[in-house]
Structure formats: C-alpha cells, structure tokens
Structure prediction request, 165 residues.
Amino acid sequence: MRELVTDAIVLDKEPVREFDARVSLFTKELGRVTAVVTSARKIISKLSPHVEPLMVSEVRLTEKGGMHLTDALQKKSLPHAAFPILNIIKKLSEPYAADGELWASLTSDGATAKEALRILGFDPTFARCDHCLREKPEFFVFEGSAYFCDRCIPYHLDRDQYVRV
Prediction:
C-alpha cells in the first residue's frame, strides 16, 4: 500500500453508492487524480467539508485497489470565479501528470482561464474563431478543442461544455 500526503485543489465531487463520494483533485505532486472518499456523504462525516470544489486542502491519499482519500484538512478556498478554471483542468489535463506552472498559477490570486489554457497548450493569444476566422474569439469549446466567437458558438451547448476566455 502506497501513501502520499500532498496539497490538492478539489476540482469536482460526485456521489458514489449510498454514502461514498468520488473527488477529482489536482495535486501538487501527482497532477490530476480521482479518489474515493468513504462515507463522505454521511451527516457525521469529518472529511466532507474539506473536499468540496474550490477547496485547497492537505490530503492523504492511499493506493490499495484504487486511489482513496483517507484524510483532509482545508488550508484555504479559491474564489468562485475559479470554477471555469477547475473545469478546464478537469477536462484538459492528463491524469498523473504533475505541472508546477499550472499549480503555481492556480494557487496565486490572479489565476485566469486564459492562463490555464495557455499552460495546457491551448494558448488563446493568436486564436481565431473555428467557424468564421474572426480574431480574439470569446469561447473555448472542450469537444474538438476549438475557439468560437459569440456569433458562431453552437447554441445547443451546456455551460460545462465551454468556457469564456
């Protein structure tokens, strides 16, 4: 059984079975990982408040038949404006690929979606709309990794399928 204590940003949390939860984390040492939190949805859970999206926590991860989060302590919380950035990391980063530059950007006060896209290799600086080729498009669509302007963005997309840059 391998064990690691590291800082992590909670990207997402979803229910699993009756009382458990699955959390997506972006850790300082491992990059993006997914871990199960046993009994996280019980009303008496001591871990649940420390593993909510936008939390920066010190976590203990164990690997035994999959990744499990066994302990967590919240250090700080990111501003609500960081939700789009968390979505970018969840959808575009590779699992188990640590990125010091991305970690530094996220934990600084001035983190932006543009900066996260740049670090992950989708720099919007010279991007053009994928449909009309207009300069400085306003949206990045995850499916197809394409940029669109406000006139050309597909109308049927859900809010979690694109991000404003």
In short: The chain has three helices and eight strands. The chain has two domains: 2-77, 80-164. Residues 80-164 form one domain.
